[in-house]
Specification:
The protein has two domains: 148 residues, Tubulin/FtsZ, C-terminal domain (60s Ribosomal Protein L30, Chain: A, 2-Layer Sandwich), CATH 3.30.1330.20; 40 residues. It is 36% helix and 16% strand. It is built from six helices and seven strands. Strands 4-3-5-6-7 form a five-stranded mixed β-sheet, with helices on one face. Helix 3 crosses helix 4.
Length: 205
């Protein structure tokens, strides 16, 4: 599988999944998620997928400082409706990493490992997404601000040509290169920019 080199330079998310350990799926239940996993799940790489990846990574790091986040033990609430804008795309990335689902996830074994009723929409949260630990109640709100990452001026024209089916091979290749350059800028150059990925701790309830 060939993909842009910067995919491998994006932040890596390590999770521990008690269910995976219980069933002997992976040693110690440790999963290592990389940006390319999100790309595979989404079927594409774009600023939305990249921002979803960074918001998830930063939220988990803030909730589990110096520790490994536990998959299946995190409640996630989206401010927007499931079918609003790109909320669904972001939710799929978040669900991939955290294991949180609405009602379609694993039902559990003996009252343990239930992954349902952990993902919510239309929530009364001030941030774009709220992540909450089930064990401690600690929570963070996270949002992405991409206003400072403008697209190359050539993108609009090239996009129009590509969508119209009139772009030649070189133009299609240039469009893809410029598109991924913006994704790279977000994932690499702004991965630790607090003005781009905004994380705020909230009080326990």
């Amino acid at each position: 599988m060939r993909y842009p080199d910067f995919f491998d330079d994006a932040p890596v998310i390590v999770m521990v999944d008690p269910l995976a350990e219980f069933l002997g799926a992976v040693a110690d239940g440790l999963f290592e998620y990389r940006y390319v996993d999100a790309v595979k799940a989404a079927g594409h790489s774009c600023p939305t997928v990249a921002s979803a990846w960074l918001m998830t990574a930063k939220a988990l790091a803030a909730l589990y400082p110096g520790d490994i986040p536990q998959r299946g033990s995190i409640r996630v609430e989206f401010q927007q409706a499931r079918n609003s804008g790109v909320t669904g795309v972001i939710a799929n990335v978040v669900s991939l990493v955290t294991g949180a689902t609405q009602d379609s996830g694993f039902k559990g074994l003996g009252g343990r490992f239930d992954r349902r009723n952990l993902l919510f929409f239309d929530a009364a949260a001030p941030g774009e997404i709220r992540f909450r630990r089930l064990d401690t109640g600690a929570a963070v709100d996270v949002a992405a601000n991409l206003a400072g990452l403008p697209a190359d001026s050539r993108m609009r024209e090239l996009l129009g040509l590509c969508l119209a089916g009139t772009a030649d091979v070189a133009q299609r290749r240039e469009f893809g290169t410029l598109w991924q350059a913006r994704v790279r800028s977000l994932l690499i150059d702004h991965a630790n920019d607090p003005e781009v990925i905004v994380v705020r701790h909230v009080s326990e309830t």
